[in-house]
Amino acid sequence: MVSTDLKKFEEEPITRQMILSVLKDYKRPNDKISELVKSGILTIIKNGLYIPGSNTEILKPEPFLISNHLWGPSYVSLDAALSYWGFIPERVYEITAVTLKKSKIYNTKAGRFSYKTAPLPYYSFGIINEALSAKQTILMACPEKALCDKIIMTPGVLLRSISQTLDFLVNDLRIDEDQLSTLDTEKIATWIPDAPKNSSLKIFIKALQSL
């Protein structure tokens, strides 16, 4: 059965090419793909990208991994990464990411995914490989990069003083001061020459050092 053959792709976003490798003996593979979608074996995320559907026991990929594949190159950051690392208390229902491409929003059957643009070389700083399972490793911002991205990419945020910065971090974002004190300011400092809003990031570093 096709669904059994697709099981080798569990915990992965499934591309059209991957499906076609399973359907190589079908004369009309596109019709079979449509049938798999209608029967709930596959769910379309966007043209050419699928995940296991509701009528199969094949394990689905985590939303963070879907995010990496949906619009790339990209890495999970901002509120989604800050929630993952335990820096903000809210559970995040939208997967937020940073990309080299233009900003984009996808509303899919796997959730809502939003992407904000960052330039090179700043984009490439502070990205780590985070293992979610044996088969799922994602690109994600480290806590320092996720916070820098949050400062840079939040409209209207321009940090001018230590007190204002701490108010933004502790009261607006609700980050615990003990967690803020664990951040590596030396790492952030190496990014500043190539970072947007670098004056705000300089104040951010001073605020962290004041804790």
What does this structure look like?
The protein has about 210 residues and is of the alpha+beta class. The protein is built from ten helices and nine strands. It has helices spanning about 1-5, 15-20, 30-40, 65-70, 80-85, 145-155, 160-170, 175-180, 185-190, 200-210, and strands at about 15, 40-45, 50, 75, 95-100, 105-110, 110-115, 125-130, 135-140. It has a four-stranded mixed sheet, with helices on both faces. α5 (about 80-85) packs antiparallel against α6 and α7 (about 160-170) crosses α10. The mean pLDDT is about 95.
Short précis:
The chain has 211 residues and is α+β, with helices and mostly antiparallel strands.
